[in-house]
Write a structure and sequence with these properties.
Elements: E1 18-20, E2 27-29, H1 71-87, H2 94-113, H3 118-130, H4 132-135, H5 139-152
Antiparallel strand pairs: 1-2
């Protein structure tokens, strides 16, 4: 295992003041003195990230990136976001609350996977009908209904 000089002066080893011990692990002081660290050994590490020292920030994998989205699901995502925003201004009811919750889950699913399952789309269709008295007058509600209809085929 190769070790690099620490940039913060913490004598992590590997520089001119230190040499790897005979077992290949750890760092023993060279002729000039310094710190002695215990043996650190890794077997096989895959799909992981390891950090040593203070103030590490390790990122393993994609962070904050949305899944690629089919244009039809992108259209649905935009309509879902708009309807969710519009529903915040509607008089609350159990139907509106259930629809809002399902819209939040739909937005999350599309962002994570790039699509929404047929079961979720069918639930949104039913919830739109249940909340039609409040949602029917919203253009965003009509847009979600049309996008869901196009994805479900009807």
């Amino acid at each position: 295992m190769a070790m690099a000089d620490a940039q913060d002066g913490s004598d992590m080893g590997g520089g001119p003041d230190h040499a790897a011990d005979a077992s290949g692990g750890g760092v023993a002081p060279a002729a000039g003195g310094g710190s002695t660290f215990g043996n650190i050994r890794f077997g096989s590490v895959r799909g992981s990230a390891i950090g040593f020292g203070d103030h590490n920030h390790i990122v393993n994998g994609r962070q904050g990136e949305a899944a690629p989205c089919d244009p039809a699901y992108q259209e649905l995502l935009e309509a879902v976001r708009q309807l969710a925003e519009d529903l915040r201004r509607v008089v609350p009811s159990p139907e509106i609350g259930a629809l809002s919750d399902e819209l939040d889950r739909t937005e999350d699913e599309i962002q994570r996977t790039g699509r929404a399952g047929a079961g979720r789309l069918a639930r949104i269709r039913v919830m739109l009908q249940d909340a039609s008295a409040s949602v029917g007058m919203l253009a965003s509600g009509v847009a979600v209904g049309q996008a869901v209809g196009a994805l479900l085929g009807g």
